[in-house]
């Protein structure tokens, strides 16, 4: 009986081990990513085909992946964290989940304001968030900046997505950096006063509301507009590049960094470097109608047709460092 | 039962204690968050949004509670006791909404009813003065969740009404009660334990829901949890909030048990009802039919409509493997959960004292934990064990990212769903039956196999099907805890909806509904024959 008992624990451990993953061979990179399987898989497949390095990955929300990375600590199998929004990447550095990488390739390909100063994460694609308007009820001359959407003239004509989405949190975070907290709060309160209806759960709903005539302007990420336009080229909507006379249009990134305890550091760096090169940049950006992070790479035809614009060159890590302030500010302003 | 009489530790209690402990592991992780001082986050929440969120949550619990009671109990009564055209079809069709994930129905409702949606667009065309209504009014949230969760009440109440038999109602009528009085004074109180069990499930599901309410952008207590975590980067405050949520649940469960008092399920074994068709029969058909149409036919049709464009793009070999894996997880984890629930229920029967009941209650409270929070609790707990094992044996990560972690999450989350039907099945077995078998010379195992098993099997299978469906629909815990490559349909839906591609998520959603129909079909056959 005692023998049985003594065997019970190791046996249990073996059983669990049998159910869990086998130790990985060297020629492999493990990625935790919040990017959609459909978007990221072609990129990884192309890499595997060219180099023979296989890639294992799981997808989840960035916050959940970071929590898992943190809990796993030194034992984590993850080599690379790839996610959207600079705020999420910044937060990962706050939790000490990413390590510095010195790479002339990455530093050459990724503009300075789209990466971490210490090389802990690098932008892979750019995501512009700007104004979208009804071509039937709005003249582009009426539009100027995000801040101006708080003016009286847009009373009852504005549609917004919920403040719980990180894209809006990042936009407000950069506004706090540029304008100061007081002024940013005045703007957000103005937006809330101008709302035509309750805030929506996603960007598509904002655009559909404008098309249906519930409101006239909104703020969306351009690739959402792109998808809608791809399905319906006769869309009665247009993008307006915000803040061209001042700070430039707000951009955020998707990006990646090598994890603190990456078992396969070199392979992880190699993959990250490859993702900053033109071929992968095209796959990453065009797959979701985003802008490549690498300045030498052109956007897709459809994306280029929206015109050139001046992008905000504030370092995107502001989205992280001021996110908590932004969330609190939006709560105070009654922006749900 | 005097526990203290025997000095040796009671091994039944130990087993139940171990199960409760497994549930408590992630809860303990959550509670440990109270060591930190998160007063700044708390002050912000209290100053700005917390009271509104609590108010919303209260409205939702009250509203959905009333909704599932009205729908579930009335439909169960009609189907069990009345005859009306289409009754045989509606009897099972009313269970179909079980296969519909709440977050999917929520999206279909919002998309359909919003200003830009087909309903209001049509209304504006017919009626130029129409200025519109908000599809995100709290009433719509309540209606949606009621339509998704009423089957829990319906299923359990239906069985209760059927097993009451005709005699009870006849006696009530003979004693001079009108049909309404007989229903409210006799039939309903007798079915109360079953109805309360279904209600408890529906409300815990409501409290834990995040997906559906966020589609409506209707802020509840879970919103505060997620806001603290993802918006304010404060996982500790999120864990504190989540542990408060559990406190509500314990309170609610305690109230439910107190309210139930000594009422028990009973197998009266009476003759089944003979339904008599009344002149209101067609009205009943319309009512039950309308519920099925709103909760299942319309949303499934809408998904199908969106899917038609997507079939070519999304339907490949990988898609089949997603569906297969979803089904595999549902069945295997379902068997595990029901097995453990049976052990618990049996232990409770052997030792029906306070401590045991407290342990059982503990083991079933995980249903109200938001899946994401539960998953993080498990990851943190398991990672700590992994580190320890790593130090002792030099093993690399063993538990985190294993199927074991995923299964534990399912056990914790869905024990309550399995426990109800299993417990009531056991309660219907009179101890005298087993004693008789033993007296007649059957050894314990033989007695269990030949007497007990046939009697509890329907309950076990009901539990298995319910849990299986819930596991297949589960999203947040599956996302965080699944081993590499163990993607399911729910994971696929998440990936698409995270970027707002709801219409494209229609294909995996529809597939999830379709996969869920198999257990519902089996469930229906069970209910037919019971």
UniProtKB/TrEMBL annotation, chain A:
The molecular function GO annotations come to: metal ion binding
One Pfam family assigned to this protein is SBP_bac_8
Gene3D superfamilies documented for this protein: Periplasmic binding protein-like II
Keyword check for DNA-binding, yes or no: no
Alphabetical keyword list: Iron, Metal-binding, Signal
Lineage, top-rank taxon, reads Bacteria
Q: Where does Fe cation bind?
A: 223-224
PROSITE patterns of this UniProt entry?
A: PROKAR_LIPOPROTEIN
Which InterPro entries does UniProt cross-reference here? Ferric-bd, SBP
Q: Name one GO cellular component term.
A: outer membrane-bounded periplasmic space
State the similarity comment.
Answer: Belongs to the bacterial solute-binding protein 1 family.
User: What's the protein called, per UniProt?
Assistant: Iron ABC transporter periplasmic binding protein
Native source organism of the sequence: Alcanivorax dieselolei (strain DSM 16502 / CGMCC 1.3690 / MCCC 1A00001 / B-5) (Alloalcanivorax dieselolei)
Automatic annotation (TrEMBL), chain B:
Where is it localised? Cell membrane
Membrane topology recorded in Swiss-Prot or TrEMBL = Multi-pass membrane protein
Native organism? Alcanivorax dieselolei (strain DSM 16502 / CGMCC 1.3690 / MCCC 1A00001 / B-5)
TM ranges are 12-34, 54-80, 92-113, 139-161, 229-255, 280-306, 326-347, 367-385, 397-420, 451-472, 505-524
For this protein, the record's PROSITE patterns field holds:
ABC_TM1
Q: Which residues form the ABC transmembrane type-1 domain?
A: 54-254, 323-523
Q: SUPFAM superfamilies this protein is in?
A: MetI-like (SSF161098)
This one is known as ABC transporter, permease protein
Q: Which GO terms describe its biological process?
A: transmembrane transport
User: What InterPro entries is this protein classified in?
Assistant: MetI-like, MetI-like_sf
Keywords of this entry: Cell membrane, Membrane, Transmembrane, Transmembrane helix, Transport
Record's Pfam families?
A: BPD_transp_1
An example Gene Ontology CC term for this record: plasma membrane
Give the family this protein belongs to, as stated in its UniProt record: Belongs to the binding-protein-dependent transport system permease family.
């Amino acid at each position: 009986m005692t023998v049985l008992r003594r065997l019970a624990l190791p046996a249990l451990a073996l059983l669990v081990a049998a159910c869990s993953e086998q130790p990985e061979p060297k020629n492999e990179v493990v990625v935790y990513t919040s990017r959609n399987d459909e978007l990221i898989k072609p990129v990884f497949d192309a890499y595997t085909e060219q180099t023979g390095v296989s890639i294992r990955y799981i997808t989840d929300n960035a916050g959940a992946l970071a929590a898992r990375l943190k809990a796993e600590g030194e034992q984590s199998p993850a080599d690379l964290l790839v996610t959207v929004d600079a705020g999420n990447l910044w937060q990962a550095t706050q939790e000490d989940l990413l390590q510095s990488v010195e790479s002339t390739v990455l530093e050459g390909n990724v503009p300075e304001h789209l990466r971490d100063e210490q090389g802990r994460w690098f932008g892979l694609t750019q995501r512009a968030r700007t104004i979208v308007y009804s071509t039937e009820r709005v003249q582009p001359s009426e539009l100027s900046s995000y801040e101006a959407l708080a003016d009286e003239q847009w009373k009852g004509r504005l549609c917004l997505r919920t403040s719980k989405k990180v894209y809006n949190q990042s936009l407000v975070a950069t506004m706090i950096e540029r304008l100061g907290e007081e002024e940013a709060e005045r703007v957000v309160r103005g937006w809330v006063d101008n709302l035509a209806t309750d805030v929506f759960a996603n960007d598509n709903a904002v655009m559909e509301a404008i098309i249906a005539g519930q409101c006239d302007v909104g703020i969306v990420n351009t690739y959402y507009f792109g998808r809608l336009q791809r399905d319906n080229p006769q869309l009665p909507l247009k993008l307006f590049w915000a803040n061209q006379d001042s700070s430039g249009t707000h951009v955020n990134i998707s990006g990646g960094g090598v994890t603190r305890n990456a078992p396969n550091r070199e392979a992880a760096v190699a993959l990250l470097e490859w993702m900053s090169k033109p071929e992968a940049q095209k796959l990453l950006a065009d797959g979701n109608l985003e802008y490549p992070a690498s300045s030498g790479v052109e956007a897709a035809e459809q994306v280029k047709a929206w015109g050139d614009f001046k992008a905000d060159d504030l370092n995107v890590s502001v989205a992280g460092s001021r996110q908590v302030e932004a969330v609190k500010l939006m709560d105070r302003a009654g922006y749900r | 039962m005097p526990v203290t009489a025997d000095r040796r530790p009671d091994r039944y209690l130990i087993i139940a204690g171990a199960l409760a402990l497994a549930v408590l592991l992630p809860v303990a992780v959550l509670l440990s968050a109270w060591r930190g001082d998160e007063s700044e986050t708390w002050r912000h929440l209290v100053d700005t949004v917390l009271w509104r969120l609590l108010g919303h949550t209260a409205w939702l619990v009250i509203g959905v509670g009333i909704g599932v009671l009205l729908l579930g109990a009335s439909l169960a009564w009609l189907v069990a006791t009345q005859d009306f055209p289409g009754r045989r079809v509606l009897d099972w069709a009313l269970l179909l909404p079980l296969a519909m994930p709440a977050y999917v129905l929520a999206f279909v409702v919002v998309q359909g009813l919003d200003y830009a949606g087909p309903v209001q667009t049509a209304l504006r065309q017919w009626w130029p003065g129409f200025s519109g209504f908000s599809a995100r009014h709290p009433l719509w949230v309540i209606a949606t969740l009621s339509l998704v969760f009423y089957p829990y009440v319906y299923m359990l109440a239906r069985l209760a009404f059927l097993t009451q038999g005709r005699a009870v109602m006849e006696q009530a009528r003979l004693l001079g009660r009108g049909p309404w009085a007989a229903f409210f004074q006799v039939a309903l109180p007798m079915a109360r334990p079953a109805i309360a069990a279904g209600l408890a499930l529906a409300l815990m599901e409501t409290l834990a829901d995040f997906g559906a309410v966020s589609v409506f952008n209707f802020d509840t207590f879970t919103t505060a949890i997620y806001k603290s975590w993802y918006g304010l980067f404060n996982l500790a405050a999120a864990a504190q909030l989540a542990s408060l949520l559990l406190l509500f649940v314990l309170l609610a469960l305690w109230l439910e048990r107190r309210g139930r008092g000594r009422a028990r399920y009973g197998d009266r074994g009476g003759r089944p009802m003979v339904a008599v068709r009344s002149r209101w029969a067609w009205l009943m058909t319309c009512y039950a039919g309308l519920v099925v149409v709103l909760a299942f036919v319309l949303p499934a049709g809408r998904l199908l409509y969106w899917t038609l464009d997507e079939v070519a793009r999304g339907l490949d070999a990988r898609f089949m493997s997603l569906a297969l894996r979803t089904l595999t997880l549902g069945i295997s984890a379902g068997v595990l959960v029901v097995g453990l629930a049976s052990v618990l229920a049996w232990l409770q029967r052997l030792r029906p004292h306070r401590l045991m009941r407290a342990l059982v209650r503990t083991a079933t409270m995980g249903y109200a934990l938001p899946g994401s929070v539960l998953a993080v609790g498990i990851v943190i707990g398991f990672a700590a064990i992994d580190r320890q094992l790593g130090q002792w044996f030099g093993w690399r990560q063993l538990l985190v990212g294993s199927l074991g972690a995923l299964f534990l999450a399912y056990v914790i989350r869905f024990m309550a769903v399995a426990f109800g039907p299993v417990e009531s099945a056991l309660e219907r077995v009179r101890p005298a039956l087993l004693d008789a078998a033993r007296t007649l010379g059957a050894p314990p195992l033989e007695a269990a196999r030949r007497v007990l098993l046939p009697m509890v099997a329907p309950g076990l299978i009901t539990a298995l099907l319910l849990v299986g469906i819930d596991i297949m629909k589960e999203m947040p815990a599956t996302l965080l805890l699944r081993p590499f490559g163990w993607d399911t349909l729910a994971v696929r839906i998440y990936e698409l909806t995270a970027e707002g591609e709801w219409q494209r998520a229609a294909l995996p959603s529809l597939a999830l509904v379709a996969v869920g129909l198999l257990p519902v079909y089996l469930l229906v056959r069970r209910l037919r024959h019971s």
